[in-house]
Amino acid sequence: MKKTPLVLASVLVTSLTTAVAAPAAAAPGALPGDLRQIQTRQSLLGSHVWYQQTYRGIPVFGGYYAVHRAADGAVTTADGRKTVTGLARTAAAFTEQRARSAVAGRLGRQPARSELVIVPGATAKLAWKTLTPTARGTVRSLVDAGSGAVLSEENTVRQANGTGQVFDPNPVVALQDESLTDQDDADYPALQAAYRRVTLRHLDPGKDTLQGSYANNISEPAVTSARRRYVYPRSEPGFEQVMTYHSMTKAEEYIHRLGFVDVNNEPQDYATTGLTEDNSYYDPSVDAITLGTGGVDDAEDDEVIWHEYGHAIQDDQVPGFGSTEEAGAIGEGFGDYWAVTMSQANSPDTAVTPLACVMDWDATAYTDDEPHCLRRTDTAKLYPGDLVGEVHADGEIWSHALWDVNKALGRTRANRTILEAQFRFTPDVTMPQAAEATVATARVLYGPRAASQARKAFQDRGILS
Ligand SMILES: [Ca+2]
Ligand SMILES: [Ca+2]
Ligand SMILES: [Ca+2]
Ligand SMILES: [Ca+2]
Ligand SMILES: [Zn+2]
After folding, report:
1. Nearest ligand, CA 234
2. What average pLDDT does range 423-439 have in this prediction?
3. Distance between Cα 276 and ligand 3 center (Å)
């Protein structure tokens, strides 16, 4: 189920003067005439009266006015009244009952409340505002009272923040130390400096679990906290649950910042319990990520989480993605690339820990060479001669091409291009086909120079000629 993003502005009183709409300023002490008092509060230092803006007696959606009286009698106001012009009518042509039925038909629930409002603006509209309780919170709809069109619909739930403790992206990179080892999941002194306190965002309100807009913890047992304080050392199973919630949410927030509203835009199921092997996987049949605990717990390394999240992204974009070995290699290569470009946001690219090294911390458990890398995004492999028929190994050809696209276009433009192009992949896409789609997307988004830069990245890997 998709979730409607929350849009709730909170504005400081001090900034309101810039947001004030057209109405002329009232004389000191006099109230504008288009207000209805809705609330009075006493604070330590005075009183605060809030008013709803109205227009011919009808509430103006989002329009407010406040009067603050300090104990010494000083009065300040906050004028958030909106401009109302061009209103065609103040009587509804589309009846309240029809508006309620339309909303109920769409949301599957009866609205609990409905009232006539004016949606402000240069061409103001008369609308029915309905509030409908649903399993995911109350949905507020604005239905045009002239045409019946849905002007807006959003979930009014306020999302909650929590506190967590994580590695970012992992201790090896954070401490620039390739000598760190698992030591059987011990919380030993040399790792302490790698811990970061973070805000866990987008948590569902009213819950004491790691469930939110972009991540849904199905580990067993799942950690809970009534105060939303999820601070555990790595030696406790809650640590991996927090790491994964935080890393997946961070990835999805980044995807939204790139402008995508519909790329795995859902609470992604994940579990960090139940798999004791040194492996992790994305299971498309149940749309869930499972992170194993062999060696270094996989979920102690952001890059393992982001690799698996890469699979979830592609499966969300293209149903059944990766149905052939070569498409599977693109999947693995994208997962590695996604891990690296997520780390790229705040990790140094050093001789000790090159960005192209994937899963620096997890790999300390099974590699001897330094830097410890499960794989890299800068190997010399070429298409098709270096294909060996194993998706992870072959994926290094694809991840290197994407990494070169990233270097040529820059992180933001590369990732917008790569994610956009993936919408046009087929489940059995070949590397040359996927490369052409990526080049074409670069051209549409950023022009011919970007397209030729992307093409060169694929040419350098032998994928395009
Ligand atoms: Ca652990
Ligand atoms: Ca998903
Ligand atoms: Ca591991
Ligand atoms: Ca890395
Ligand atoms: Zn994979």
Report:
1. 1
2. 96
3. 9
